[in-house]
Amino acid sequence: MEYEKILIEEKDYLKGIIDVLKGELKSGEQLLNERTKKVIQARKEMWENVVHIYEDTDRLSDFGSYLEDIDGSNSDYNVIFKKIQKYNRMINKPYFGRFDFKEQGEEEIEKIYIGIANLMDEETYDVLVYDWRAPIASVFYQYELGECAYNSPKGLIEGDMTLKRQYKIKDSELDYFFDSSLKINDEILQEVLSKNSSIKMKQIIETIQKDQDRIIRDIENELLIVQGTAGSGKTSIAMHRIAYLLYQGYHTKLNTQNIIIVSPNTVFSKYISDILPGLGEENVEQIVFEDYAIDMMKENDCYVESRVQQMEFLLNEREKNLIKLRKKAIEFKGSKSFIKILERLIKCYERNIKEFNDIYCDNKMIFTKEYLKSQFLNNKINMPMSKRLKRMERRIFRELHPIRRRRVEKAEKIVAEIPDHIFVVKQYSRLISLKRSKANNDMIRKMMSVSFIDVYKELFLNKRIFKTLAKNIELPDEIEEIIEFSKNQIEKGNFLYEDCAPLIYLKLKVDGNDEFKEIKHVVVDEAQDYSPLQYEVFKTLFGNAGYTVLGDINQSMDKKVEMSLYDEVKNIMNKKNMAQLRMNKSYRSSFEIIALSKKILQKSYGIVSFERYEGKPMIKQCIDFKDMDYDVISELQKLYRQGFTSGAVLCKTKDECKKLYERIKDSVEVEIIAEDEKEYMGGFVIMPVYMSKGLEFDGVVIYDAGDENYNNELHRRLLYVAVTRALHRLAVLFRGELNRFMQ
Ligand SMILES: Nc1ncnc2c1ncn2[C@@H]1O[C@H](COP(=O)(O)OP(=O)(O)OP(=O)(O)O)[C@@H](O)[C@H]1O
Prior knowledge:
Pfam families: UvrD-helicase, UvrD_C_2. It contains 26 helices and 23 strands. The radius of gyration is 32 Å and the shape is globular. Adenosine-5'-triphosphate binds near residues 207, 228, 231, 233 and 234.
């Protein structure tokens, strides 16, 4: 059949679907109105009839039935409301693809239309459109024409794909379609990728690639690790995977409350916050490791350095030896060796450091310190230290209670003899007794508590303890300096960002934790940013949850990360079913930008770019800062003129950002993001490279990228991140010599 004829047929089909959707929307809205009236009516009646209920206990049951009514109407209301939302999401573009499927052993060929959600004919129960997450939809992403199969609840279904078609539908109108016999959706992907970036992360259901689809739909593995190059779609995949896991709730036993995303910072959290609602799911909880640590320390009246401050130190400190030492300390305090030392520290604290005193009451010995210690160490049910101490404290006070009562009785007799106190015998006697017990009570309470911060301090304030605990454990050559450096910081009351993970670890072990007991699946994005110890913390925080861990070792910033990190993650999580996959194709940046990013890395790591050619990045030498300011302004203006809607000027440090902003803010429309809590609201911004992680912009200007500013391994990775933020345009400005990585 020639194209025009099919186009008419397809337009008819689309019209039919739009009519169904319109009908559903109309009846849904009517129903919603009725339900709204019903809820208002039920509330009104309850209000009118139940006001006097407190005096009339017989009518309490009426109250219950009113509440039941309201509850029922509310949940009805929610179901209808959600349906309406779904149809509204579908009406502009009910589907984007179709394939024709002939199941083995069947005569009939089924037309399978795929869209953002399911649509069913309510009378015939025919599925008019399948949700992209439905089992059968996997065929669309996984196969080309010919033999194909998918896993259904009934088992493996095999068959033949006789047609594969994609549609360009806009505002409920079919523009065109095309049949693909080869790679799925290259043409549409090309079009999607050539568009401007958006403020919030976009959904990609039309163009999910085969290897990405496998990751999204994996439910076999309790630990799924993905190493993906910058722009390969890790975050997109993570979000679509969550939508998939929620859709498959029956099999995965997951609902919104059971999933958590560990995200790198608040800017990023906001960036991904629209995607799940757009896919028809509620947002899931997000946790930023740093915020969790800072809050925890605040609760204990302690200050801890932020990640940004740590990064700024590494970038600004002039004394090279201090930077080297700090980097070593960061590496060591996140290492497997340090985990072992912390485990030993807890045991050692219990056995050798934690001390008890004899407990007396009214000159009578109640418990000896030896007895208390033996009770403390008797831990058959593996109860955390502070819970055990609390239990002991309760027991001690129970024991003291009758003795004190007797003391009060005795006091009462004496007080009763004093004429002035005759009317306040009881109160006065209790006061005397309390006064006498106060010091003892305080001592007991103090003895029966433990602070994870004190436990941590023991490690560095007492070198002998460190040495004993570190016996037979591999230590860095600089360990003496690391201990000394840490001791100095702790004595000054400074906890550094690298102390956060050990501190949280100790807190969880010492105090126990059930804050996240609902969590069954954890998604860790920017996985390279976390140390083995942080993974150990995740394991302790989230119990036996499953994990999706996505990262790119080349984007690590505070330390050099190798592929071996993933082996450590596997060892720590210790799951029966696990898989590690790679995504090497970058979809974000143009071919030429990716070529430059590969040059920076030197090793190519098998990175391939999607073939989108947009011209070479501009690399320009400037005479001085003034000249560079001028170029920044003109590059931003060029981006505006070319119709781009987002751009970033990426500087090395926060300070550079602030100074540049002050100099150019009156000449060009630009904002600054130099504090972590800010949200990226679109448009053109100046920000430090390390904050731009995970984000993307139509155009990027890398500021002051000379060799003076970028010359070590950390700088190499910063440049890699900076370059790979750009979709379409890239300008590199430098003074003096160009950085060694781009030459
Ligand atoms: N299959 C796809 N179809 C359309 N666009 C895609 C696809 N995969 C990725 N993209 C686009 O590529 C860009 C990069 O995706 P994403 O941010 O998820 O990558 P990433 O691997 O997390 O990157 P980074 O590590 O640099 O943060 C996004 O604009 C995303 O929409």
